[in-house]
Design goal:
alpha+beta, 46% strand, single chain, 8 strands
């Protein structure tokens, strides 16, 4: 699975489970991936949320995407970068995260933070091939 395949997979299966670390303990939550392009995977979260604080303190994550239709798991491990792109933030709120409009109206655009995963390591696995005991590992 090359980078283009990974991006296509995420576009079709936009919800991941994102693992971060806080105080030496794993933290996992479901996160939608509202923007996917050649630059990578972009996430939007509230500036005051635990996940934002965790990513700023320790930007290493692992994302796990699953497709029931394809019976495929794609895990991506890498380093998140805070992204300063007001236009992309507006686009995400206007087209994907409409539920955040009241938050922005009340607290301003500074209440949201964007993070992007530009590169990393991809591991794919499918239960359709039980003979394959180790996941396929590629660069992202």
């Amino acid at each position: 699975m090359d980078r283009s395949d990974v991006l296509d997979f995420v576009r079709k299966n936009s919800t991941s489970f994102m693992a971060t670390v806080e105080d030496g303990q794993p933290r996992v939550r479901a996160m939608d991936t509202p923007h996917v392009d050649e630059g990578g995977l972009t996430f939007c979260t509230g500036t005051g949320k635990d996940v934002c604080r965790q990513l700023l303190a320790r930007p290493w994550v692992e994302l796990c995407y699953w497709s029931t239709d394809e019976k495929m798991q794609v895990r991506i491990r890498g380093r998140m970068e805070e992204l300063d792109d007001p236009e992309l933030k507006r686009q995400i709120v206007e087209t994907r995260f409409v539920f955040l409009k009241p938050v922005v109206e009340q607290y301003g655009w500074e209440s949201l933070t964007l993070f992007r995963l530009s590169s990393g390591e991809v591991r794919t696995w499918s239960p359709l091939n039980p003979a394959e005991r180790n996941p396929q590992v590629t660069a992202f």
